[in-house]
Amino acid sequence: MNPSEPKARARNRLVGDEPLSPGRLEAFSDGVIAIILTIMVLELKVPASAEPKALAHEWPIFVSYVISYFYIAVYWINHHHFFHRVKRVDLPILWSNVALLFCLSPIPFFTEWMASTRLSPFPTAVYATTMLVAGAAFYVLDRVIGRQGIGEADIVLVRRASQRKNLIAISIYAVAIPVAFYRPTVSLALVFLVALLYAVPSLWIDRYADILEDKEEHRGEHGTLHKPYTGPPAGHH
Amino acid sequence: MNPSEPKARARNRLVGDEPLSPGRLEAFSDGVIAIILTIMVLELKVPASAEPKALAHEWPIFVSYVISYFYIAVYWINHHHFFHRVKRVDLPILWSNVALLFCLSPIPFFTEWMASTRLSPFPTAVYATTMLVAGAAFYVLDRVIGRQGIGEADIVLVRRASQRKNLIAISIYAVAIPVAFYRPTVSLALVFLVALLYAVPSLWIDRYADILEDKEEHRGEHGTLHKPYTGPPAGHH
Amino acid sequence: MNPSEPKARARNRLVGDEPLSPGRLEAFSDGVIAIILTIMVLELKVPASAEPKALAHEWPIFVSYVISYFYIAVYWINHHHFFHRVKRVDLPILWSNVALLFCLSPIPFFTEWMASTRLSPFPTAVYATTMLVAGAAFYVLDRVIGRQGIGEADIVLVRRASQRKNLIAISIYAVAIPVAFYRPTVSLALVFLVALLYAVPSLWIDRYADILEDKEEHRGEHGTLHKPYTGPPAGHH
Amino acid sequence: MNPSEPKARARNRLVGDEPLSPGRLEAFSDGVIAIILTIMVLELKVPASAEPKALAHEWPIFVSYVISYFYIAVYWINHHHFFHRVKRVDLPILWSNVALLFCLSPIPFFTEWMASTRLSPFPTAVYATTMLVAGAAFYVLDRVIGRQGIGEADIVLVRRASQRKNLIAISIYAVAIPVAFYRPTVSLALVFLVALLYAVPSLWIDRYADILEDKEEHRGEHGTLHKPYTGPPAGHH
Fold first, then answer.
1. Does the beta-carbon distance from B20 to A202 stay under 8 Å?
2. How far is A36 from chain D (nearest CA, A)?
3. pLDDT surpasses 80 at C123
4. For residues A18 and A12, is the Cβ–Cβ distance under 8 A?
C-alpha cells in the first residue's frame, strides 16, 4: 500500500521500528494536558482582603476557571477516544498532535486575561478565537488519524460523524467571536455549549452503533459490512 | 446484566474496547495530583528580608502548607485504594473522577488566600468549605465505583464502611466551617483530624477483615459468604 | 514470617493484593521530583534591564539554581536505586516516601529566598537545614526499606554501607548550618560536596562488590555467603 | 567486551540488574520536557488593559513563545529517536541526559527575559547562547549513546550523520550569537531554522536509508554489510 515500502524496511533497520509508540505519544499528551489543567490555578490572583465581598468580586475568575477546566478535561477525554485507534505514529500525526497541544497551552493565559479584565469584549473574543483555533487543530488531527482507518467501512462512518460534529463546533465558535463584542457572557455560554456536546464522547458513536446494529441484523449474514469501503452506501446522504 | 449488551458490542466494534483503561485514568489522576501537590510551593511568597524574624512571621504559610500537603497526599493514597477495584471506566466514573480532580485543584489557591490573610475567619471557612466539597466529590465517586462491585458480599461491606467513614468526614467539615468564624485554628485542626483518619487507608478495612476472618472460621465451610449479596446480614445493624 | 498472615489474606480478599505497586509509587515520586526540578525556574525573576550587568548581577540566582538542580537530580537517581529492591509497598514505606517528597518540595522556595537575599547568612543556614531534613527523611526511608531485605547477607552489607554514607552526609549538613553564618559560600560548597558524593550511586556498592568478589573466590564453593544473616562477619568492623 | 565483567556480575547481585531502565529514564525526561513546554505560558504576563492595542503590543512575547515551544517540541521528538537505541542506562548516559535536561530547563527564563525586553540585543544573544549550550549537551549525549552501538556498521553511519548534523546546528547558533547584537530578529530566525532542520528527525536517516538500500542491492548477497565496523568504507568520504 505504502509506495516507499522497501525504503521503509531499510530505515527500520537504522532507527528501529517505531521510535515513538502511540502509547508514549498518548502519555506525553496526557502529561501536557494534566499540566495545563492544573497550572491554570496559578494564574489566579488571590484577593488582597479577607472579606467575603473581596471573594465575591472575583466571580469572573471563577466562571472563567470553571469553563476552561471543563473545556480542557473534555479535550483530554476526546483525545483518548481519538488515539485509541492510532496504529502507528507517523510524522503527520506527530506534528498535528504537537500543534493541538500548542493550541491548548495558551488557554491559561487567555483565561487569565479575560478574567482579569472582568469579561471585557475584546479579551472574550480572543478567548473564543483560541477555542476556534484549538477546534481547528483537533479537526486536522482527526483527518490525519482518519487516513489510517481508511478502507474499513465502520471506521469511515464514525470518522465522518466525528468530523461533522467538529465542523459544527467550529461554526459555534465562529458565531461566539462577534457575539463577544456585544454580550461576552453569551459568547462564553456558546463556548461552554460546545464543551457540553463533547462531554459524552461516544454520543454520536452510539447513534451509529444503533444504525450498525440494525444493519447487522438485516445483512450481517451476507458479510457485506466488512468489505473495503469504496464510497458512501447508497441512500446514506 | 447490562441491558444494552448488544448495542455495547456494536459500539466496541466502532471505538474499540475501553478507549480509557482504569490504569490510564489512574495515571492521569496521579499526574494531576502530583502537580497540585508540588505547585502549591509556587503560591508561597518568599520573605523580602533575610532576617529570622521575617521567616518566623510567615508561620501561617507553613502551617497551611503542611496541612494542605498532607491532605492532598491522603487523597492520592485513598484514590488508589478506590481505583484498585475499578474494572471498566464508564462515563459516570470518568466524570465523577474529573469532578474530584476539579475540586482538589483550587486547594493551592485557597491555601494561599488563607495563609496570606494570616488565617482570617472568612478565608479559613472557605478553605474548610473546599474540603467539604472535595469530600462530597469523593463520596460521589465512591458510590459510582461501588455500583461495579454490587453483588459481591465482601465488597458491599467494605463499600458501606467506606461510605460511612466518608459521611463522618463530611460532618466534621460541616462543623469546621462555622467554627472558623470564632477559632480559625480549631477549624484547621478539625480539617487536619479528617486527614489523619484517612492516613491509614485500610484502617476500617482491617476491622472488617477481622470480622470476615471470624465469620470465615464459623461458616466458611458452608460457602455462604460468597453468595450474591441480597441485603444486610441479619443482626448486622 | 508476618504474624498477621491470616488477617492479611482476609484483607487481600477485600482490597485486593497491593493497591499501590512499587512501580506506581516510583512513577508518582518521579512525577513529583520532575515537577520540583522544573518549576524552580519559575521562582527566578528575570532582570528588569536588558544590560549584561543586570544579568551578571543575578549570579546568586544562577549559583543557587545550579546547586539545587544538581541536588534534586541526585535525589532522583538515588531514589531509584533505593526503590529497585522494594518488593511490596507497606504503610511505613508509603508514608516515609511521602515524607521525603514533602521535604524536597520546599527546596524551590528556600532556593529563591537564599538567591533573592544574595546568599545572606540566615537564608543560607535555612537552606542547609532543609538539606539536612531531606537527608534525615532519606535515612528513615532507607531504614524502612532495609527491613524488607533483612536476612539476605549481601543486602545487609549494602544497606549498612548506604546508611553509613547517609549519616556522613547528615554530619556534613550539620557542619554547613553554623558555617553559613560566617561564610555562606563555604556552606553552599559543603552542600554541593554531599551531592557530589551521591552523584555516582553505586560508588560504595562497587567497593562492596569488590569485597564480595574476593570473598566469593575464597569461600564461594562452601555456599556460606547466602546463609541468613545473623550478625556482622567476624573481623569486619 | 566490558573489562569489569566479573565485578559487574557481583554488583548486579547487590543492586539488581538495571535500577534505572531506558524506559523509565525516557519517561522521566518526557515528564521534565512536558513541564518545561507547558510552564512557559506562566512566564507570560497578561496585558493590563483589555484593548486590542495592548495585545498587539505584546508581539515579542508571542514570537518568543512560538519559537521556544516549537524548539522544545523538536528536542522532545529527537530525544525519543535517540533513546530508542539505548540498551542499558550506564552512568555517562544518565548524567549526560540530566545535563541536557538542565540545559533545556532555563529556556522559559531566557525566553521571558528576551520577550520582556522586546528582543533587545543582549538578551537575544543570551537566548541564542542557551540554544548553543543545549545543542552541545545534545551532541555529548549523542556521542555517549553512540558508543553502545559501536561495532554495527549501519548504526555507525547513522550516528555519524546525526553528529555531523548536530555540528552544523551548533555552527548556526555560533553565528546567531553575534548577529543578535545587530539584528535580533535575524538571530531568532537562525535559531528557528535549526529547529526546522530537526523537525523531521529521520530526514538524514532517510538519505542513509537510500544509500543502504542501494548497497544492499549491490552487495547484500555477500553479507558484507553486517560485518563489524572497522572504518569508513572505501570511497565514502
1. no
2. 7
3. yes
4. no
